[in-house]
Amino acid sequence: MPTAFTRGLSPTFAACELTHLDRKPIDLARAERQHRAYEAALADAGLEVVRLPDLPGHADSVFVEDTAILLGEHAIITRPGAQSRRDETDSTAESLSDRFIVHRLTRGKLDGGDVLRIGKRLYVGQSSRSDCAGIVNLAGLAGRLGYEVVEVPHERCLHLKTGATHVGHDSAGRDVVLINPDWIDPNAFEDVFLLPSHPLESFGANALRAGDRLLHAAAYPYTAERLRALGFDVEDVDIGELEKAEAGLTCMSLIAD
Q1: Catalytic residue list
Q2: End-to-end CA distance of the chain, in Å?
Q3: pLDDT band (50, 70, 90) for residue 50
Q4: Position 1 confidence tier, pLDDT thresholds 50, 70, 90
Q5: Phi/psi zone of residue 90: left (φ > 0), alpha (ψ -120 to 50 degrees), beta?
Q6: b/e code 210-243 from CB counts within 10 Å (16+ = b)
Q7: Residue 257: predicted pLDDT
Q8: pTM metric for this prediction
Q9: Topology annotation, domain 3-256
Q10: What is the C-alpha separation between 172 and 181, in angstroms, rounded?
Q11: Backbone angles phi, psi at 236, to 5 degrees
């Protein structure tokens, strides 16, 4: 059974790290309701939802994707680019150790949100949160596990998956990458069909495959219609309050096939 590992919101969530957005007041109760609805959507899609231990002193800890990369029976524990997040990784490693063979990056910095997997290829964003040393370290570990790493420099969004996500296969059997071409260079991807997000929806390129469904933020209906036109079963999920912390649908879970 596919599994989604999540983590609850910290009471200090409003003090989260911000890189590209201005800070706005966050209604914590509303954010928690949206997060519970997000977990419910994962469960409704047929995934087992497993909550990792809460980390109340870590404002960004709900963004559990940044702390690990799941590759089959292996889990690679990352080195988050924000120093304030480094201690989150010990909890993730301990929690995953009974289900996965755990490896750890030891050099550089790298956020899981910068890693986009398509088959045996890992597209890895070089960003303010993930540097060359971290990517080289990942390439060495992932290479021994049979994965190729392709570097994708970007600077206009927080993570690679803020501006590009693999949404699965369309009705023609093609791998489809939903992309904001203003943020991520389309030429970085090989052997895929590129679907641009709607020009009016800069953040519309982040979507999360959950079983046979595709979860997509409710704020971007024009992009959702483009996905439906390709045959995807799209479920709109409201994460508006969470987005004030630069959240995306992918960053709040670790998905194990």
Answers
A1: 159, 251
A2: 7
A3: very high
A4: confident
A5: alpha
A6: bbebbbbbebbeebbebbeebebebbebebebbb
A7: 87
A8: 0.97
A9: L-arginine/glycine Amidinotransferase; Chain A (3.75.10)
A10: 23
A11: -80, 130
CA 177 to chain centre: 14
How far is the C-alpha of 225 from the C-alpha of 150, rounded, in Å? 30
Pairing of β 213-217 and β 234-237: parallel
**Tokens coding 188:** 């970085």
Three-class secondary structure assignment of 149-168? EEEEECCCCCCHHHHEEEEE
Per-residue three-class SS string for the chain = CCEEEEECCCCCHHHCCCCCCCCCCCCHHHHHHHHHHHHHHHHHCCCEEEEECCCCCCCCCCCHHHHEEEECCEEEECECCCHHHCCHHHHHHHHHCCCCEEEECCCCCECHHHEEEECCEEEEEECCCCCHHHHHHHHHHHHHCCCEEEEEECCCCCCHHHHEEEEEECCCCCEEEEECCCCCCHHHCCCCEEEECCCCCCCCCCEEEECCEEEEECCCHHHHHHHHHCCCCEEEECCHHHHCCCCCCHHHCEEEC
How many Cβ atoms sit within 10 Å of the Cβ of residue 29?
10
Contacts of 143 (CB under 8 A, 6+ apart): 149
Confidence of residue 111 (pLDDT cuts 50, 70, 90): very high
In this structure, what token pair is assigned to residue 114? 């910068």
Q: Whole-angstrom Cα distance, residue 141 to residue 147?
A: 9
Q: Do 126 and 184 contact (CB within 8 A), yes or no? A: no
